């Protein structure tokens, strides 16, 4: 291993909790605001029933919009994939295959489903509405109040598929129903090192990143875990996460509103639009930066540094780790 590779991100394991119930979760896990793998939770019949044949039969031929990529490492920023529509049963069979007799791009293309609401512009995903027959098979952990529920997202991935690093603005549980998945996470405090475009990181290859292009990435603290069938991962809001499906697998993400409902953007159906106050603050910052452009370079630099110091002194938390 060369010096550059050795310098990449120190690693830490995600904490594991066995047989956590709601009281244990709320008392020992949730207050820490850190990811945690929860094992031994009863998830219902889905863990044994959701085979390829059963999913194809129970899910039927309703059409679903899926991502199709010729490479396993998906890049949302540069869109190295296509959107295609397939009958659900056909999609499941294709996603479970290593090579395909029928394909859009190449015989070894990868597939990914992130279920959508009935009208994606207005409705959040809800497995009970989009896949009611399958919803009956899964027991979603009741770790939050019913009125906090935001969405339940059905996810199916081809083996080897890697999703881009991003954050969500709501807490969520990633339920790994079948298959296994490697998950890498980064703290919100490491945002300065992740080269963000919106809510997504430009750094795609987390194991051998281009440190000439992304030198600050080496400073990020990497948390990782491997989810096996039946595991549940708690991902707190704002924690960056990246997943790799080790084999064909099925999961369900459950998001809930842990802030007061009026904090969130009412047009958000994905759970990734910044809270209203945060969006407003960013808009004000953009106007302030535009005003600084009226100054000569020497002054602009000086007052920009003063602004950074003020933000740090007024807004950085002394308690958050």
Brief overview, please?
The protein has 321 residues and is α+β, with helices and mostly antiparallel strands. 24% of the residues lie in helices and 25% in strands.
Tell me, briefly, the overall form: globular
Strand content: 25-35%
Structural class estimated from helices and strands:
alpha+beta
Fraction in helix: 10-25%
Q: Find the count of extended strands (DSSP E, 2+ residues).
A: 15
Average pLDDT for all residues: 94
Q: Describe the biggest sheet?
A: 9 strands, mixed
Question: Numbering strands along the chain, what is their spatial order in the largest sheet?
Answer: 2-3-13-8-15-7-6-4-5
Low-pLDDT regions: none
Which assembly state applies to the chains in this document? single chain
Order of helices and strands: HEEHEHHEEHEHHEEEEEEEEEHH
Distance between the ends: 31 Å
Number of helices: 9
Computed CA radius of gyration, to the nearest angstrom: 21 Å
Descriptive notes:
α4 runs antiparallel to α5. The protein starts with a helix and ends in a 6-residue tail after the last helix. 24% of the residues lie in helices and 25% in strands. The strands form three sheets. The chain has a nine-stranded mixed β-sheet. It has nine helices and 15 strands. By secondary structure, the protein is of the alpha+beta class. The radius of gyration is 21 Å and the shape is globular.
Structure keywords:
321 residues; alpha+beta; 4-stranded mixed sheet; globular
């Amino acid at each position: 291993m060369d010096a550059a590779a050795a310098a990449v991100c120190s690693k830490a394991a995600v904490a594991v909790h066995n047989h956590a119930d709601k009281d244990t979760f709320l008392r020992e896990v949730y207050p820490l605001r850190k990811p945690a793998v929860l094992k031994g939770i009863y998830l219902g019949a889905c863990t044994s029933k959701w085979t390829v044949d059963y999913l194809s039969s129970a899910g039927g031929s309703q059409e679903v919009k899926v991502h199709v990529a010729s490479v396993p490492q998906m890049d949302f920023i540069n869109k190295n994939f296509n959107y295609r529509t397939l009958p659900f049963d056909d999609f499941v069979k294709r996603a479970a295959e290593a090579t395909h007799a029928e394909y859009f791009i190449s015989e070894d293309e990868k597939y990914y489903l992130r279920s959508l609401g009935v009208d994606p512009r207005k409705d959040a995903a809800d497995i009970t509405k989009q896949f009611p027959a399958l919803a009956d098979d899964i027991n979603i952990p009741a770790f939050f109040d019913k009125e906090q529920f935001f969405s339940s997202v059905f996810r199916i991935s081809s083996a080897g598929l890697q999703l881009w690093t991003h954050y969500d603005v709501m807490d969520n549980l990633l339920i790994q129903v079948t298959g296994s998945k490697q998950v890498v996470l980064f703290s919100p405090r490491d945002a300065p090192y992740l080269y963000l475009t919106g809510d997504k990181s430009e750094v795609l290859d987390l194991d051998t990143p281009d440190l000439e292009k992304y030198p600050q990435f080496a400073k990020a603290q990497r948390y990782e875990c491997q989810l096996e069938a039946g595991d549940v991962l708690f991902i707190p809001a704002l924690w960056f996460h990246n997943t790799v499906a080790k084999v064909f697998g099925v999961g369900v993400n459950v998001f809930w509103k842990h802030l007061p409902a009026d904090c969130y953007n009412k047009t958000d159906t994905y759970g990734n639009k910044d809270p209203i106050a945060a969006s407003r603050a960013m808009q004000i910052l953009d106007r302030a930066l535009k005003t600084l452009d009226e100054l000569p370079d020497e002054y602009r630099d000086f007052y920009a540094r003063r602004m950074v110091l003020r933000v740090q002194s007024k807004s950085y938390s002394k308690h958050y780790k």
